[in-house]
Amino acid sequence: MNPLLRLLGIIVLCASASAWAGGHAYITNQGSDSVSVVDVTNHKVIATIGVGKAPVGVAVSARLGRVFVSNVEDQSLSVIDSNTQRVISTIAIKGAPVGVALSADHSQVFVANWFDDQVLRFDSASLQPLGSLSVGKAPAGMIASPDGQWLYVANRDSNDVAVISTKDWNISARVPVGAHPFGLTLRRDGKQLYSVNVYDNSLTIIDTASLQTSSVKVGEHPYCVALSPDQRRLFVTNTQGDNVTVIDVASRQVLTSIDVGGYPEGISASDQHIFVANWFDDTVTVIDPDTLTVISTIRTGKQSRAFGQFIDPSLP
Amino acid sequence: MKKLFALLAMALLPLSAAAHGPSPQKVEKSVTIKAEPAKVWALVKDFGNMQAWHPAVASTKLEKKGEDTFRLLTLKGGGTIYEKLRSADDGEMKLKYEIVEGVLPVADYNSFITVKAGPGAGESTVTWVGRFYRVYKLNPPIPPGQDDASALNAVNGVYDAGLANLKKVAEGK
């Protein structure tokens, strides 16, 4: 091969590999009715996409090239093409769509219908409805197990987490947690589930095999939780503390808290950093999960919420 | 002020601090006061004497329940608001409180007031911030007086009237 062509080939390969590994954060902006697309490598907003009224929940699939956004005041779900950063479809959802999550294989998208106490299922490709199931009161955060067997749903007003079997869509267990569970996350191996309990200022750790629980005190009025890329640390947003509590997974001890913007809500990890959406400040704070310091602050749209996994966790 | 009383009187509903709707609302207001921060902070942090600076408040009754501090505000236009003190930080000059129940057409209301030095020498900047939800928790149609606009109007009215009068009182006018 011509050496110049080979060099060009290497450059193109590197560029596409870094775009893949880096990925994008999709930040829902309640007050601007938009989504800010943030490049997680250079921390710049690369696009702003108009969606429905008061977007809150978000789920990202790099595999499908799609992003799903719940517009709670509009009663709709926006579907974004993540290659063109444009809305390609809007699904009407009667009720109050808040939480959004994908199945383990990304073939289905789940929407928590807060006021109707239901989880709705859609085919993520055809966007056709597949069914619904009744859960506890005010379902909020959701996450699917990596083996595809379970869907976990935080029932905010029932103070429990529903464990739903994806074989028959029946509730196989309801695990009592603290008061007002909102955000959920799961360790990559699926063995530990974490629920953030807003009214208790606590995080519940659930062993997914035994369903036994333990809890850790966090800051004021916590909302959401994310794991560091190496799975060793948990980061919990405290909406009324304007900070993030950092917990060591192995010892279950609080290591420190990190000041972020005002009323931090959504939190997700890229392959390198932790991203926090600050509702009051209209910003995203980026945290280094090793040094536990803030490394940048990004201006987004008004009242950023980003509830859900707003960066695709399955990225290599 | 009249408009504010009308707004408050409109929503004489028993409000629950429990479950709320999906979209929080935000109000942030600031005022510059020609008085030393310590003097302004002394007024703001005095949780049991809100009538000393807020023109809509007729009287304040302070209550201690164990370690917690509450106040019952009786408004000049009628009605009450029952509030819980979250913290009063002298170092940061930041007062945090929440509404337990009352006539404001809001749900799950929490707020803070900060006093900062500046912009000029001997001046203070007071910022009052609130996060809350509308009264009506479910989907449209939303009954009149329980929507986002009613909640925002009421809180804007309370903050505007309060900060304007705090400035007058602190400046000794």
Radius of gyration of chain A: 19 Å
Instruction: Count every beta strand of chain B, where a strand is a DSSP E run of 2 or more residues.
Output: 7
Question: What string gives the helices and strands of chain A in order?
Answer: HEEEEEEEEEEEEEEEEEEEEEEEEEEE
Shape of chain A: globular
| CATH top-level class of chain B | Alpha Beta
Measured by residues with Cβ under 8 Å of the partner chain's Cβ, the largest interface is: A-B, 22 and 16 residues
Overall number of strands of chain A: 27
CATH superfamily of chain B: START domain
What is the top-level CATH class of chain A? Mainly Beta
Radius of gyration of chain B: 16 Å
Biggest sheet: strand arrangement of chain A: 4-5-6-7
Query: How would you describe the shape of chain B?
Result: globular
Organism (chain B): Pseudomethylobacillus aquaticus
Protein name (chain B): SRPBCC family protein
Signal peptide (chain B): 1-19
Pfam family, one (chain B): Polyketide_cyc2
Which keywords apply here?
A: mainly beta, Methylamine Dehydrogenase, Chain H, four-stranded antiparallel β-sheet, 1 helix, B: 173 residues, alpha+beta, Alpha-D-Glucose-1,6-Bisphosphate, Chain A, domain 4, 7 strands, globular, SRPBCC family protein (chain B)
Provide a descriptive summary of the structure in words.
The complex is a heterodimer of chains A (316) and B (173). With 316 residues, chain A is mostly beta strands. Residues 7-22 of chain A have low confidence and may be disordered. In chain A, the strands form seven sheets. In chain A, strands 4-5-6-7 form a four-stranded antiparallel beta sheet, with no helix packed on it. A four-stranded antiparallel beta sheet of chain A has the order 8-9-10-11, with no helix packed on it. In chain A, strands 12-13-14-15 form a four-stranded antiparallel beta sheet, with no helix packed on it. Helices cover 6% and strands 53% of the residues of chain A. In chain A, a hairpin with a 4-residue loop joins strand 1 (24-29) and strand 2. Chain A has a single domain, classed as Methylamine Dehydrogenase, Chain H. Chain A is built from one helix and 27 strands. With 173 residues, chain B is α+β, with helices and mostly antiparallel strands. Chain B has one domain (2-170): START domain (Alpha-D-Glucose-1,6-Bisphosphate, Chain A, domain 4). Helices cover 24% and strands 38% of the residues of chain B. A seven-stranded antiparallel beta sheet of chain B has the order 1-7-6-5-4-3-2. In chain B, a hairpin with a 2-residue loop joins strand 2 and strand 3. Residues 11-18 of chain B have low confidence and may be disordered. Chains A and B meet through loops of A and loops of B.
